[in-house]
Amino acid sequence: MAESKRDPLLTIVWWLLTLILLLCVVVGLFCVLAYPAMLLNKAYFLGEFAKSGIPASAFPWIGVLGVVAGAELALTFLFLLNLRRIIDSVAAGQPFAAANADHLRRMAWLSVVMQVVGVPMTKLLVWFDAMPHKPNVHHHEHGISIGTIILTLVLFVLARVFRTGAEMEQDLEGTV
After folding, report:
1. How far apart are the C-alpha atoms of 153 and 115, rounded to whole Å?
2. Which residue, 59, 63, 61, is CA-closest to 42?
3. pTM for the whole structure
4. What does the alpha-carbon distance between residue 118 and residue 65 come to, in Å, rounded to a whole number?
5. What is the pLDDT of residue 103?
6. What is the average per-residue pLDDT within 56-79?
7. Residue 137: exposed, middle, or buried by beta-carbon count in 10 A (0-12, 13-18, 19+)?
8. For residue range 80-98, what is the model confidence (pLDDT) as tens digits?
9. Are 105 and 56 a contacting pair, CB within 8 Å?
10. C-alpha distance from residue 55 to each of 33, 49, 122 (Å)
11. In this predicted model, which residue has the larger pLDDT, 150 or 18?
12. Residue (of 86, 121, 128, 127) closest to 103 by Cα position
């Protein structure tokens, strides 16, 4: 990030991504470790569920939701890590490095996997929404995001553009 001092936007985005990456780790660990912690005091939580109108049969599904949410956060972490690596290369003055095409392609595939993982997570959230405790949050029933599909397509196209740019840059260096 040494050259990013010339570009305050890159510096701000780099630090913001670093903060979000840290948040992904912390919340992801919470998602994965919360259910085992709940198992240690299962009777208490089942009592609280009963007070809220949540059936005891929902208890194991909270563990499944935690694992799926943890997986989604891990994928998000990898996606953002690739983005931060692109920012590093741009800050170093090498935006069309071949590695950036690889990062973009990885980000595209990660967004596909995130979309797939998001479907069961959304189904679980919709099921929890339908329980008698009536939460204030409502989720789309299908879990498919048009925005994510468009983002994925854009990332695949940008990966090709960056790959072509890297090849053109290599050809240019070879002729000079």
Report:
1. 13
2. 59
3. 0.77
4. 11
5. 94
6. 91
7. exposed
8. 999 999 999 888 888 888 8
9. no
10. 22, 7, 19
11. 18
12. 86
**CA atoms of 140 and 123, how far apart (whole Å):** 9
Residue 128 CA, chain-centre distance (Å), reads 22
Tokens of 101: 């095409």
Amino acid letter, 154: V
Judge whether residue 176 has pLDDT over 70: no
Q: How far lies 48's CA from each of 31, 89, 132, 133, in Å?
A: 19, 51, 13, 11
Residue type, 135: P
Instruction: Indicate the DSSP class of residue 131.
Output: S
How far is 163 from 176, CA to CA, in rounded Å? 20
Instruction: Look up residue 174 and give its two tokens.
Output: 């070879």
CA–CA separation, 78 vs 72, rounded Å? Answer: 10
Distance of CA 43 to the CA centre of its chain: 33
How would you class 58 by CB atoms within 10 Å of its CB: exposed for 0-12, middle for 13-18, buried for 19 or more? middle
By the 8 A CB rule, do 138 and 125 touch?
no
Residues 86/103, Cβ–Cβ less than 8 Å = yes
Query: How many CA atoms are closer than 13 Å to the CA of 156, on its beta-carbon side?
Result: 9
Model pLDDT, residue 3: 45
